[in-house]
Write a structure and sequence with these properties.
heterodimer, A: alpha/beta, Amidase signature (AS) enzymes, eleven-stranded mixed sheet, 16 helices, 13% strand, B: 3 helices
């Protein structure tokens, strides 16, 4: 069966694959086999996968195919493969968070997000490499656009696997800049929803009040489709909000030229020349297509947002590992070990003051966001760096500490051959207008092409 | 020396002393660069003026949308 004239199955987005399966133009078995073959062909070089569940995926694909043949579809992702960063629990699947500390750990249940995706008919293909405990000790993964460069981190495998067409959608996580940054480095569309929009139950924690689930795909349409499935209250996660979950895909149909608050201060000032040039060109194209772009001013508390964010995450990381660390210190990598130890030194009163600053920052941002549909920055100050270090989360941390939703879309592929992105920021629980603005930008700027592998 | 710089120096000294006490001198030495960064962050947080009525934000609560 063919999904579309000339299309190869591994190139299909999740939305395209779901439609092809529903219309019987594509079998879930053929799709799963095409992606497994892609992994077999490329992953010795890209090194995105910590575990490929071949038997489980094949069994699920057969089940989905049988159900589809009977006209039964479990949900909007029926028969579509997905993958998750190796800090997400998958029942019966080894989950090691890139650490010797958790070697051989097999959870008994699925993370809520994994369970919801499976419930919508999606097929878990496997687990993707992460930096150790989602911090800075690097994963082995390489950037599909240039194997000498990092894909970013900490969701390294998630970004690389989607970019390399090994899987159409993947989940990662973001505490500082770990989902949006690798999505941009890999030429993808990425989304970090509002804190509390998506459950983190069954995701190995790094920082309880700052951990977010992140989404990576090759189109904004796919981000909307997946978010609708995984968002919403989870009784097992007290941080989740009870707000109703809108139809994000329907919101995309309403997209129109947005009113954009451009953050020059701090962000454009810190870019290298190539990022600044590509960003200016992209903004020129958006303006030419009808976007209203005005400069937005940062609030007074922005100046301390990074310090507050790092104070919160360091202290919470130390607390997250307080029971495990003393007996296994020598098994931890050097970066996470240093974070745990210095985090344990942070005085409680200053941890709480950082949380109070977070509240002020969030309130001050709301005033600015009231004037625009979205704020905009370059997603990263540089393209993906060469080597193993996973890049700088400095452009993501303010939105992680504030909990505001952010998205990235590709905005250019300069001479370096490494993709760049634009980051969009919206108000709390405003994922629908955020995704609509991102889809409009994607339509004007175009999606990234495929890396030559 | 500015108030923030004085605070940073004080945090640097107290964090280092606590690291020596908990982890030993060699480990405290290894943590030096990270302790310096953390001291800078703590000085920024400590120096930032807030209303006494400003409470902490753990999670996003109703009324804060």
């Amino acid at each position: 069966m063919s999904a579309a004239p000339g299309a190869t199955l591994h190139e299909l987005t999740a939305s395209e694959a779901a439609a092809a399966i529903r219309e019987k133009r594509c079998s879930p078995v053929d799709l799963a086999e095409a992606l497994l073959a892609r992994i077999d062909a490329l992953d010795s070089r890209v090194k995105a996968w910590a575990l490929v569940d071949r038997d489980g995926a094949r069994a699920e694909a057969r089940r989905c195919a049988e159900e589809a043949a009977r006209g039964t579809f479990r949900g909007p992702l029926h028969g579509v493969p997905f993958a998750v960063k190796d800090i997400f629990y998958g029942a019966g699947l080894r989950t090691e968070a890139g650490s010797r500390v958790l070697a051989g750990f097999v959870p008994a249940y699925d993370a809520t997000t994994v369970a919801r995706l499976k419930g919508a008919g999606a097929i878990l293909l496997g687990k993707l490499h992460t930096t150790e405990f989602a911090t800075f000790d690097p994963a082995p993964t390489r950037n599909p656009w240039n194997l000498d460069h990092t894909p970013g981190g900490s969701s390294s495998g998630s970004g690389a696997a989607v970019a390399a067409r090994m899987v159409p959608i993947a989940l990662g996580s973001q505490t500082a800049g770990s989902a949006i940054r690798p999505a941009s480095y890999c030429g993808l569309a990425g989304l970090k929803p509002t804190f509390g929009r998506v459950s983190v139950r069954g995701v190995i924690p790094l920082s309880w009040t700052q951990d977010h689930v992140g989404l990576m795909a090759r189109s904004v349409e796919d981000l909307a489709l997946v978010l609708r499935v995984i968002a919403g209250r989870d009784p097992s996660d007290p941080s989740t909000a009870a707000d109703p979950v809108p139809d994000y895909s329907a919101a995309l149909a309403q997209r129109r030229a947005p009113r954009v608050g451009l953050l020059r201060e701090f962000f454009l000032e810190r870019c290298d020349a190539e990022v600044a040039r590509v960003t200016r060109e992209a903004i020129g194209r958006l303006t030419g297509a009808g976007a209203v772009v005005e400069e937005a001013k940062l609030p007074p508390s922005f100046g301390v947002a990074h310090a507050a964010g790092w104070t919160i995450t360091r202290a919470e990381t130390a607390a997250c590992h307080a029971e495990l660390y003393p007996g296994k210190a020598d098994l931890y990598g050097p970066a996470i070990r240093g974070i745990i130890e210095t985090g344990s030194l942070i005085p409680g009163d200053l941890y709480l003051k950082a949380l109070r600053i977070r509240r002020r920052f969030r309130r001050e941002l709301a005033v600015i966001l009231g004037r625009f549909n979205v704020l905009m920055t370059p997603t990263t100050p540089t393209p993906a760096p060469a080597g193993m270090a996973t890049g700088d989360p400095v452009f993501q941390m303010p939105w992680s500490v504030s909990g505001l939703p952010t998205a990235t879309v590709p905005c250019g592929l300069p001479a370096s051959g490494l993709p760049l992105g634009l980051q969009l920021i919206a108000g709390p629980f405003a994922e629908a207008p955020l995704l609509a603005a991102a889809a409009w930008c994607e339509e004007v700027l175009g999606r990234a092409s495929s890396p030559a592998l | 020396m500015s108030d923030r710089e004085a605070r940073r120096t004080a945090f640097l000294e107290s964090l280092h002393a606590e690291a020596v006490r908990r982890f030993g001198p060699a480990r405290a030495e290894a943590l030096g660069p990270m302790i310096e960064v953390t001291a800078g962050h703590l000085a920024e947080v400590a120096s930032f003026p807030l209303d006494r009525e400003e409470g902490p934000a753990f999670y996003t609560g109703p009324g804060e949308r």
